[in-house]
Write a structure and sequence with these properties.
With 510 residues, the chain is an all-alpha fold. The protein is 73% helix and 0% strand. Among the domains are: 77 residues; 152 residues, no CATH class.
């Protein structure tokens, strides 16, 4: 289902105008229902679609034939996407044009129309070299080498394309290696946000392996993946000053390319925003935010990741209402449900903290709110299975916000019941040299029930943890920036305010 649905959504979202395609679908009632069902999320899965169309399961022959028919039509339609009307960069347009013409040239070659194919291939080659499509240059040079060597016997042409092939094959090997090394580093980091010294060591080793090729060739993919490996070198130990310098360097290098390198520019602008948040440089962060968005399509994966930073920037800058507006926009975006599970879980954790702020009067909800009012603590805990297992990473804010919401709901017995489990968690996972700030903060939270929820006693018994916390500000802490959704210093102030108000209410009741 994912393939056909993905194609249907792509064709629909690009507003592709193909009367023949749309008419052919409309003239087939069941085909039209299947197409419309895919783009409107009417079907939960293939079984649901087959049941509604044929009162059968997904293996029914008629359903398989219908879906295959739609798939073929949609694949054909991809080649007619209007790259001029769509907001593609020059490199994106060149990518579509080159690969479409490459496919056409391969088909022409299969029909033994050699001269026409060679003219087309040499035309594609020039553009592929300009836009640094290394893999395509390699494939085209191979095809041209074979033609001029075996069909025309042109030693000059054979020698030229043979030399070109070997040059780009070498570059491609380095590009593929850079991609492999980056993926290797990323694999264990996606679902575990704790900082790891061994990650930095591996990244340093990997970059050293690539550096000579980067300096010699500096192609798009080499720069991109080697730059991402360098990001990990600094981000794995939260060296944000070095990160800012790296981002400036990479943005400068990509800006000098003879085309718009939209994706790398997005990535390194994004990393700059992270640095501004971690360094507490909120004015520069606010200035950089609009610049970063100009390359991003609304509803794309990167759009959600950028808004994740805008939310954090708002929360760290005491603009809680601005963070609420970001949450409302994101959860009401149709593409949210298609996000990868780890990305969605981060948004649910952000929402939980925003609910805490809203209940403390820091956020005003719109009259037609459809996000905050549906929040339930039990449901929230069931929607974050991945990060609940991330014991030294995103499970930290989950435990914190769970305790805060229980405190707000005055479920004192439940808060008290959490003490022993939280103590064991701190001793087992939150080591002094790892998540030091989180260790301090959770120990401060544990004093709340131990001091019978009395704010004065709590402040007195948490003073030692407070001093330790403030001696290691966020920019010096060895933890992922996602973990501290609201800086602990700000969050502790809100908690004490809550306890004082609660104490006042109890006094009035007496």
């Amino acid at each position: 289902m994912n393939l056909v649905k993905g194609l249907a959504v792509l064709i629909h979202n690009t507003k592709l105008y193909l009367p023949e395609l749309l008419q052919s679908i409309e003239h087939h009632p069941k085909l039209s229902v299947l197409y419309e069902g895919f783009i409107s999320d009417k079907f939960k899965d293939d079984d649901d679609a087959a049941l509604q169309l044929y009162q059968a399961n997904k293996r029914h022959s008629a359903y398989l034939k219908l879906k295959g028919n739609l798939r073929r039509r949609l694949v054909d339609a991809v080649f007619f996407i209007d790259i001029v009307k769509e907001k593609f960069s020059d490199r994106q347009r060149a990518y579509f044009e080159c690969y479409k013409e490459w496919a056409a040239a391969k088909i022409i070659l299969s029909r033994n129309t050699q001269p026409a194919a060679m003219i087309l291939l040499e035309h594609i080659l020039k553009k592929a070299e300009t836009y640094e499509f290394t893999d395509l240059v390699t494939d085209i040079a191979r095809a041209l080498r074979l033609h001029y060597g075996t069909r025309e016997g042109r030693l000059d042409k054979f020698g030229h394309f043979n030399e070109l092939y070997h040059k780009y094959w070498k570059i491609l090997s380095f590009e593929d290696l850079a991609e492999e090394l980056y993926a290797n580093l990323s694999a264990s980091y996606v679902q575990d946000k704790s900082v790891k010294a061994e990650t930095q060591e591996a990244a340093v080793q990997f970059y050293a392996e690539l550096q000579p090729a980067v300096e010699e060739y500096g192609t798009y993919r080499l720069l991109l993946y080697s730059g991402l490996i360098q990001l990990i070198i600094h981000s794995s130990v939260n060296d944000y000053e070095q990160l800012l310098g790296l981002c400036d360097d990479m943005l400068d290098k990509f800006s000098q390319k003879p085309y718009t390198a939209g994706v790398p520019i997005q990535i390194f602008n994004y990393q700059q925003l992270i640095c501004f948040i971690q360094l507490g440089d909120y004015p520069r962060g606010q200035q950089a935010a609009p610049r970063a968005l100009q390359y991003i399509e609304r509803g794309s994966y990167n759009w959600f990741k950028y808004n994740e930073l805008f939310l954090q920037l708002s929360f760290h800058n005491d603009n809680f209402q601005g963070g609420c507006d970001v949450l409302e926009m994101v959860f009401n975006e149709k593409a949210f449900e298609a996000l990868p599970a780890p990305t969605k879980e981060i948004w649910y954790i952000n929402l939980a903290f925003a609910v805490f702020l809203q209940r403390e009067g820091k956020i005003s909800l719109p009259p037609d709110d459809s996000v905050f009012n549906h929040f339930r603590l039990g449901k929230f805990l069931n929607t974050i299975p991945i990060f609940s297992k991330d014991k030294r990473g995103m499970n930290v804010p989950i435990l914190i916000v769970q305790m805060l919401l229980l405190l707000q709901e005055q479920k004192d017995d439940a808060v008290i019941d959490r003490i022993e489990a939280m103590k064991k968690y701190c001793s087992r996972y939150l080591k002094e040299n790892e998540l030091f700030r989180s260790n301090c903060f959770i120990n401060m939270l544990l004093e709340i029930p131990l001091q019978n929820f009395h704010p004065v006693a709590i402040q007195r018994h948490t003073e030692k943890y407070w001093q330790r916390l403030t001696k290691v500000p966020l920019e010096m802490a060895h933890q992922s920036r996602e973990i501290e959704i609201i800086p602990y210093e700000k969050l502790w102030g809100i908690i004490l305010e809550h306890l004082e108000n609660r104490d006042t209410r109890k006094g009035l009741e007496k």
